[in-house]
Amino acid sequence: MTLQSLWEARHPHSPVPPAELSGSWDVVVVGGGITGLTTALLLARAGKSVAVLEARHVGAGTTGRSTAKVSALQGTQLTSISRRHPDRVVEQYVRANLEGGAWLARFCDEHGVDRQVRAAYTFGFGSRGAAAARRESRIALRAGLPVTWVDEPDLPFETSGAVRLDEQFQVDPLELVEALAGQARAHGVTIVEGVRVRRVNGSDPVRLVTDVGAATAHTVVVATNTPILDRGAFFARVSPARSYSVAFRTTGPAVDGMYLSADSPSRSLRDAPADDGSLLLVGGAGHTTGRTGSPAARLDELRAWTAEHFPNAVESHAWSAQDYVPHHALPYAGPLLPGHDEILVAGGFSKWGFTNGVAAALALSGRILGGHLEWADAFRTWGTHELRGGIDSARMNAEVGFEMTRSWLRPLARPGLGAAPAEGEGEVRFDHLGAPTAISRTGGVERRVSAVCSHLGGVVRWNDAERSWDCPLHGSRFGADGEVLDGPATCGLGTG
Questions:
Q1: Which residues contact 419 (CB under 8 A, 6 or more apart)?
Q2: pLDDT above 90: percentage of residues in the chain
């Protein structure tokens, strides 16, 4: 089974031929998603020479596989921030998201990108959900969001009420990406696809080493969701989160807004325009990357839930996406290392990249151009607010240590030679002295690669939904052939 998002099906992308790379720019942006492309466009408009380097093609990562809700009401995100930070920081976060959303709305309207204005809702299934939604409402009002309470949102299942924010919107993310890339090129940005950055070092100029050559820049912006550079240890400051979406054709209107549950089970709902009406998008069933027995079962969970509550819905597409949740609940946009502005990073958007990613681009471009946005203090990569996530960071990294040990012990249950994996299956075995081997069969071809993640040495697990090898430590993902799909790893799995 190949998972393809609704957006990818609507905007097919031709394979990118290998390219050579050389040259020097004022700024090189690594990553061709919404954050990288927006940053490149903003800098090019200001007269900087800019290049964007993308390992696959623009929008191929999280951007093109998201639900693309553009909202300052984000489930219970404000509650998460409020538990760790003072009201001033919550207000900065809200202003950042409002400004990011407003910039994106203007861009869409000016460049013909269709956006559908919707109300955003955070709803509860039961009493705990209602309490969480009401708490989010109080914090949102305190931070300046004009939210209201709805006792009975228009949904075909029982709820315990919802908090509502009007005048938010949703988009087709790849339609947006194509427009951003087009405008970036029109302003002189060089976009190079199919080029994976392996190393970044030096200063003034910074040198980027890729698999097809090298480039130099005065400043490098790493906009790869989680940094591909280990300096700064950002991989230890975020948790990789995998979540799932399924699109359905329905016989009537889908839903009238953008919905997200405040309690379990986690469910996200929105509609999407279609030629013959509209589609229903159902998301949720998330987990930490590499730490579930069967990702395919997570998709089946969404299918079963939808069949119960939308009995006439017929599936059209299914997919998943990867996000990163910071230990202190705030995104980051700033220097990779304190006091060194030659390499800047952005990420940790906690599944809300369409506002946070644009806000990060505004903060980084302002920094490069010598300006400052007051709300950008909440996005600082280094500061005292990092300490407010200390307990969560300790817990998160203790879990990583546990997964490191468990990942190496698990293959001991399959020593030696066994039966070849069936089609679509993979397993890790100790079948020779040394490191374990990852063996899979896809498309009738058996592949054997090293089971040891090239990032920090965790042992990967088979993802039965996407036919990939996923690392349970920091979320690196690899194809059945061992090639990198998601970072922080920059090198593939070795030979088995």
A1: none
A2: 76
